[in-house]
Amino acid sequence: MSIADDDLSQFDISKQEIDKLIAEVIRYVLFKTHQNSGCPIKREELTQLVTKNYQQRNLPSYVINAAKEKLSSSFGYELRELQRSRPSSTKPGRSSQGIVDTKSYVIISQLPAEIYKKYVEDVNTSHLTGFAFVAISIVHLAGGKLPEENLWHHLKRMGLSEAEENHPVLGNVKQALETLTQQRYLQKEKVSGPEGNTVFYELAERAIDGPVSERIKQYISQIVKRDTTTVDV
């Protein structure tokens, strides 16, 4: 659905100015995504691109929605909105629907998986995607949250040590895991207990979001099915 030109009248600025703002938001999203390894972009950042020169109340939402539409139609990307989740220990007695904070955005390719893999996927970063799926799956199978010590226990069984700084594929393994928290696939929190502080890793909004969550479940299902087949043989 395209955005009607008639809607521009409410802002009292020209279509050329609107188009310039839309282009600026698109350019910012594409470059920031590449520069920050796909880390989510806060809505506040996109809003400030508009409000630095214009004060119309509804203009930021209009421009962001128009940029979302153009990213899809011209670039083949979905500008997907995420709701930042808080660690579960900070929200006692609340349902999962009511524990959101800052809105942010990531871009997701709308190409079919086989075409994306053949023509777009960067083989130089595919190992990081594999590591992300493994780490997220471990946390998912633990019920969405587990102590840092347990997470490293499972990763070490795969030959990944937190002390490894020169892994042949991942480089600094601890930093690779930290990148997943920056990308908001995981979040970590230090919790005080009777035996001292314990750091927990928990699924963050990007891992809980529909497309990623479904892929994780499919990934786990394939592994379980393969292992079951191996045992049967």
Give a brief rundown of this model.
The chain has helices at about 15-35, 45-50, 60-75, 115-120, 125-140, 150-155, 175-180, 205-210, 210-230, and strands at about 40, 75-85, 100-110, 145, 185-195, 195-205. The chain is an alpha+beta fold.
Provide key terms for this protein.
single chain; 233 residues; alpha+beta; three-stranded antiparallel beta sheet; 6 strands; globular
User: Can you tell me the overall shape?
Assistant: globular
Pattern of helices and strands:
HEHHEEHHEHHEEHH
By helix and strand content, what is the structural category?
Answer: alpha+beta
Q: State mean pLDDT (0 to 100 scale).
A: 85
Unreliable segments (pLDDT under 50, ≥5 consecutive)? Answer: 94-100
How many β strands by DSSP? 6
- Radius of gyration, in Å, reads 21 Å
Strand order of the largest sheet: 1-3-2
Q: Please give the alpha-carbon distance between the first and last residues.
A: 53 Å
Fraction of residues in helices? 40-55%
Query: β content, as a range?
Result: 15-25%
Q: What is the number of helices?
A: 9
The main sheet comes to: 3 strands, antiparallel
